[in-house]
Amino acid sequence: MTDFARTKSLFVLPEGVIYLDGNSLGPLPKAAAARVQKTVESEWGNMLISGWNKAGWMAQPSHLGDRIARLIGAPDGTVTLGDTLSVKVYQALAAALALRPDRKKIVSDNGNFPTDLYMARGLIESLNAGHVLCTPAPEDVADEIDTDLAVLMLTEVDYRTGRRHDMKALTQAAHAVGAIVIWDLAHSAGAFPVDVAGCNADFAVGCTYKYLNGGPGAPAFIYVAPEHIENVQPALAGWLGHDAPFEFDLKYRAGTGIERMRVGTPPVLQMAALETALDIWDLADLKDVQAKSIDLTQAFIAEIEATCPSLTLASPRDPNTRGSQVSFAHPEGYAIMQALIARGVIGDFRAPNILRFGFTPLYIDMADVQGAVAIIADIMTNDLWDRPEYKTRARVT
Amino acid sequence: MTDFARTKSLFVLPEGVIYLDGNSLGPLPKAAAARVQKTVESEWGNMLISGWNKAGWMAQPSHLGDRIARLIGAPDGTVTLGDTLSVKVYQALAAALALRPDRKKIVSDNGNFPTDLYMARGLIESLNAGHVLCTPAPEDVADEIDTDLAVLMLTEVDYRTGRRHDMKALTQAAHAVGAIVIWDLAHSAGAFPVDVAGCNADFAVGCTYKYLNGGPGAPAFIYVAPEHIENVQPALAGWLGHDAPFEFDLKYRAGTGIERMRVGTPPVLQMAALETALDIWDLADLKDVQAKSIDLTQAFIAEIEATCPSLTLASPRDPNTRGSQVSFAHPEGYAIMQALIARGVIGDFRAPNILRFGFTPLYIDMADVQGAVAIIADIMTNDLWDRPEYKTRARVT
After folding, report:
1. What angle do CA A269, A271, A274 make, to 5 degrees?
2. How many CA atoms lie within 13 A of A9 on its CB side?
3. pLDDT value of position A392
4. Which of A204, B37, B180, B276 could in theory staple to B31 by disulfide, Cβ–Cβ 3.0 to 4.6 A?
5. What distances in angstroms separate CA B262 from CA A240, B234, B328, one per listed residue?
């Protein structure tokens, strides 16, 4: 049984804050500061160039990849780290399309995180080979699976609503028509048990700064099913994906297995921070995480609905079809979230009208839920959000 | 006049080490540890998600981009940071080819760093539009510039020999036949004055962990000439290159100016370290850096040639056609470099036979040159490299 009091004690959680935004950026593991400092001073500072071998920097993407593999149901040697999630989506889609050269149809959905769709469109324009990207509503995805389908590319959990696709069923349906399937696990990894191997996913990608708590700008990950990896010729053929990077061969020769999905120099300081986050994950069982997430989210929904009738549930009511977040809709969602943040309840506003709250059992407990509900109810009941300072939107870029 | 004693004092330089490898990984700025710690503890730890705005993380790629722009002769607002150099090469080449849709010839050279060529080949395969990549010897590049040329893509300084292309003349020649020019400044930025605007470069890319001292895994940079940027539709169309990322628009709309070359979430910890390195660059005049580099490298060549006749100069003798490195060839180069490293003289071995020494005036001075020469001469004169332990090559990946 996971000791959640212990895991909570391992994070820095500022006084006066109830942090329901760990699905956007996880909090700081207490061990991260010292670990990053060690990497900066003892490794970079003292080892200089030899840190690549002596401190193990060069092998970190594989080592950390194996640790992430365990969290998503993947075998060792099938996951590597690097780049951003956008770049990993591009790599996965390029490889997947190359496995189905005679098909032109790509299906995603209109609830996918926009960057996945942008990267797909950028790739389609580069390929200039007549690929078509279909983006039905999430609930209509299954209807688009037919024998024209090259690649089904979905984010398992909708970033707006928390709606969760049936990963196993959709993968099976796509395979039945001969298509390749890519899963974006941005809102899945660390939120509940994921089983990429059991679902027969062909590719999976994700980020490590949300539920995994790797820190701002932490690298992304990519999984490629063992049956495909030797057939993948990376579109982003970087030197660290070469079979022998330090031979400085002028000809690219794809590295063994998942190593070929590496591109350039890995972000050593970011990986050091991520490592401490993964140490905490070693203490957790994702089945326990999911059970606690269901307790927290069900209680949150029940209490918000009981106290704030103007907030409309925008997430699935059934926890088995929902990720570890709860969203409510309100036309004044932006101002309400500003008012909440001013009172220390941190969630996200997602245009046009979504208030999004992430529930991260490693460090959020029922007392946090009660505290958040009390503040939300106060703000809604007394219209405390209805102030000009909460309504001015800063342009964020 | 740059105060090089002062700049040297701002780096951590381990006792007993003469570090002639700053062209591979620059040393640790003394201020970096505290700055990274602040980012980890005060920003990530206390601000959590609000760090993106409050701590300025989101704007860092533009701010640091402007600071790098000053080091490469680019105007403000034309350089941004992110990803790795391999990815930036891909972005630049994809954009450059799109500007010359009717031409199929890409010219680089066989001294380019392999990842640039790999990325180009990966892109060519994706485009599947008949592009051809020519890789003549560096000295024969000019002969390949003709009216078929779409893109000339060169690394200004050869990573093996230090041979430096004539950036202005080659750019002019390529423009005269209507081609686009991309310069990889990996071994130029921070090594000597670069003038991308004065040379009319169309694109430039580079890394920040070599001469710029940004640390292991520091992000890459990309410059796009103002006359082109509004015509560039990024192949890697990531959400942070969107005109309004937080509108979560399903359609990609390229951001203003250089912002569109951003892709995904920037590496916040790496940028914090880089910032302290750029603070040191604020104290330096690159003309002084170049003058001192010439003094150091000319002295090194003269003394090595006088004491070690078996080492053959592999770099241009004329400092005006050389970057800030000196390479010597020797059939036993690998073992010799291992013996040097064991004695604290850190350089690089580059297959098959190159001993490479980088000269970085911010923290290397004439006393370091004398010290290095004495050790190299001892090792060569007394065949101290001729030991089994120096000859066993570890496979590095």
Report:
1. 115
2. 5
3. 81
4. B276
5. 22, 9, 39
**Nearest residue of chain B to residue A122 (CA atoms):** B235
Phi-psi region of A357 (alpha: psi -120 to 50; beta: other; left: phi over 0): beta
Q: Quote the tokens at residue A158.
A: 């909708």
How open is the CA angle B228-B230-B232, to the nearest 5 degrees? 70
Residues of A in contact with B216 (CB under 8 A): 43-44, 51-52, 57, 265, 268-269
pLDDT tens digit string along A331-376? 999 999 999 999 999 999 998 999 999 999 999 999 999 999 999 9
The answer to whether residue A83 is catalytic is no
What is the separation, in whole angstroms, between the first and last Cα of chain B?
42
For B266, the token pair is 């920037």
- In Å, how far are B86, B155, B333, B385 from B138, measured between CA atoms? 20, 10, 23, 32
Which residues on adjacent β-strands are paired with residue B80?
Answer: B222
A205–chain B nearest CA distance, Å: 14
Residue ranges covered by each domain of chain B: 4-29+285-391, 32-281
Query: Considering the domain A4-29+285-391 in this protein, what is its CATH number?
Result: 3.90.1150.10
For strands A180-184 and A203-206, give the pairing: parallel
Put simply, the chain B residues between 104 and 123 with a CB less than 8 A from any chain A CB are 110, 113-115, 117-119, 121-123
CA angle at B168 for the pair B164 and B171, rounded to the nearest 5°: 105
pLDDT in tens, B88-107: 999 999 999 999 999 999 99
For residue B352, cis peptide bond before it (omega within 30 degrees of 0):
yes
